[in-house]
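INTERNAL AUDIT FORM
Audit reference: QA-55
Scope: verify that the stored structure record matches its stored sequence.
Auditor: D.O.
Record contents follow.
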Amino acid sequence: MSSLASKSGPRYRHVAGDSEPYETIGVEKLTPIIGAEISGVDIGELVSDSRPNRQMDEIQRALAENLVIFFRDQRISSEQHLAFGRRFGELHIHPAAPHEGGDPALMRIYADKDSPRANGEGWHSDVSCDIEPPMGSILYIRQCPPDGGDTLFASMYAAYEALSDRMKAYLEGLYALHDGEPIYRGLYANYGVADRKDYPRAEHPVVRTHPVTGKKALFVNRGFTRHIIGIPRDESQAILAYLYQHMEDPLYQCRFRWSENAIAFWDNRCTQHRAMWDYWPHTRSGTRVTVKGERPV
């Protein structure tokens, strides 16, 4: 029997809530828990007018309700990509990755037959080592392989809610160290990027409260989290190993199959993601714009 099942049913049960219908966009859920494809939006046209409008409000609502949203067949320029990100807040500058063009907020995403790695191969939350980790990321893929290259996304709301009450009580008030040093040093040498003197590190709550929805989410990840503060290292290692295995269960996930000129926009505060590098020797390329966030509480 699955560890998520018992005689009373699954450990985590998604209960659908009543939701007002959308008026200006189409929203097709990928799963009941996470992910939705958005239709009826031309992002290039949307950002041509910087004034507030109903469609932007509904896109924000769709992100809050679905955690990650996807737009297909969007042919936008770098300037429009940046402008779309700025509709959600000030843009974040990646502490290590190369950028494209003259704006450092436009991160380059690229892997081909000569690449030693691809971006985001392991489960992670983007730049969680920052004092104020990003609110969200907007990835635009212009070129994708004929097969493969999917991205998996997982709900950290669902992962938290499925924990036992005793585990929730144990984790309450604990903080963990997130460190970019072991991840970023030398990571982009193949692009000719010189290392910085140091990389960000920060202490964040193991369970954070989302500033918009008020929901609790797990906020540790394999990529950046080094250890839980204030408990023995062997205990920290065991607790983190359990949490990682738990939060990576497919029950909490959706999987997006990319097509050229598609966009994924995920809420970094309540999701983790993993990019699959199963398409060698083909090329996958695009750009990412990241929106600044706040200090987790």
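Auditor finding: record pair retrieved intact. The two ends are 36 Å apart (CA to CA).
Action required: none
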